[in-house]
Amino acid sequence: MRFGRRRPDETPASGVATDPAPPPGPSAAPGPHAAPTPAPAPIDDEEIALLRASVELVGPLAQDLTVYFYAILFQRHPEVRALFPADMDVQRDRLLRGLLRIVDLVDDPENLVRFCSRLGRDHRKFGTLNGHYPAVGAALLDSLARFAGDAWSARLADVWSRAYGIVSQVMVQAAEEDAAVGPATWKADIVDHRLRGPGIAELTLRPHSHYPFQAGQYASVETPWQPRAWRYYSLANAPREDGSLTFHVRALQGGRVSPALVHHARPGDQLTLGAAQGDMVLSPGKDGDLLCVAGGTGLAPVQALVEQTARDGGRRFVEVFVGARTAGELYGLDDMLRMAQRNHWLKVRGVLSDETVPGWRGSLPEALREFGPFYDHEVYLSGPVDMVTASARVLVRQGVARRNIHYDPFDVPVLEAALLPRRLRAEDEQ
Ligand SMILES: NC(=O)C1=CN([C@@H]2O[C@H](COP(=O)(O)OP(=O)(O)OC[C@H]3O[C@@H](n4cnc5c(N)ncnc54)[C@H](O)[C@@H]3O)[C@@H](O)[C@H]2O)C=CC1
């Protein structure tokens, strides 16, 4: 089934499903504009091709396009500005990344609806109102029109308008459903803060109320030092009885949030969390061997998955590769090795890419090549996007099925977010 094309008995591809919409929650408060209109007409294959072609056309101008988009949005609706951080760089990048991902998934309705639903739920933390969606849609179309130049046409405007309508309906519905069952944000106090390596800190938080998540997921975090500048960090633990949460943070050079968390945050400081999300979770009902590949602070979700496996009784064999550039950055490996000594189901290897230590030298993809094949494993990849891409490629070549490779499009550069899934699909088909 193509996005938007449906038989009469199917759930609408827009995700505006057979269930009646829940009553509007607080997020449905009247905004500057009317709420989104009823289901837009579906989009056919030819129109999907048009959408993609227009994205390729404006792609080289993407940075300017997003600057323009936010400029006209804030000019037309100054009240919306207060929802965004002072520094818009990361936010601009996120809009682009989201758009590219949507266009990438446009012929994959199941994943598109899942992605947009998640986006809608995630937007609750910003205080997004239903009435903001038409304002954003109008600014987006005007920006695309401006940068597409002569290639822009009434037909293209209509296709984009319907595509945006479908996407925003899915987002609004997901946000409303989520509002019916839980808060948009959680306050949490830092109760422990320790340095684990050069510029790497481990923070433990105690949320004021129950924070639901699964091992392997990530949370968005807002600090008091950079209001409304949300960043994603993986949880480094499986759910605990006392409800505490651990995060690993590396202070990024030139960053605004991570250096504050590593160098300034102290026990007693309060952070705000958005809902947990992410697909790097253990699949229920499966009991095959696991392969976890962690690069740098990508160790966090892997540590959580290993903890969860232990809690489930250690019934699955787990092979972990932990990579860092230097031995000093290989934080957390000792704990993992100690755990492996106590548990026969766990095997751990360290890999150093930029330092020569006999037996440890190499990159993570090289190590997978050397110690593989892992074709019957359930695989979890976490770390820098190039590492994730290269590792996935090695594993696909070894015969690992695409569906068994789990990763999150986490903090990845704009184009990678759009290319990675297609690239992997292409590998799969070879
Ligand atoms: N759920 C997830 O996927 C998570 C992802 N991350 C991401 O992981 C990254 C961690 O950053 P750092 O700690 O600074 O890592 P880093 O840059 O120090 O690298 C860590 C490891 O990845 C390898 N690596 C880096 N670039 C590579 C490439 N092009 N090809 C193959 N291997 C490569 C390095 O050799 C090293 O083994 C961040 O981008 C962060 O956003 C972090 C936590 C969770």
Automatic annotation (TrEMBL):
Gene3D superfamilies: Globins (1.10.490.10), Nucleotide-binding domain of ferredoxin-NADP reductase (FNR) module (3.40.50.80), Translation factors (2.40.30.10). Pfam families: FAD_binding_6 (PF00970), Globin (PF00042), NAD_binding_1 (PF00175). This is nitric oxide dioxygenase. GO terms for molecular function: 2 iron, 2 sulfur cluster binding; heme binding; nitric oxide dioxygenase NAD(P)H activity; oxygen binding; oxygen carrier activity. InterPro entries: Cbr1-like_FAD-bd_dom, FAD-bd_FR_type, FNR_nucleotide-bd, Globin, Globin-like_sf, Globin/Proto, MRET, OxRdtase_FAD/NAD-bd. It catalyses: 2 nitric oxide + NADH + 2 O2 = 2 nitrate + NAD(+) + H(+); 2 nitric oxide + NADPH + 2 O2 = 2 nitrate + NADP(+) + H(+). It comes from Streptacidiphilus pinicola. Keywords: 2Fe-2S, Heme, Iron, Iron-sulfur, Metal-binding, NAD, NADP, Oxygen transport, Transport. Residues 1-10 have a biased composition (Basic and acidic residues). PANTHER family: NADH OXIDOREDUCTASE HCR, PROTEIN RFBI.
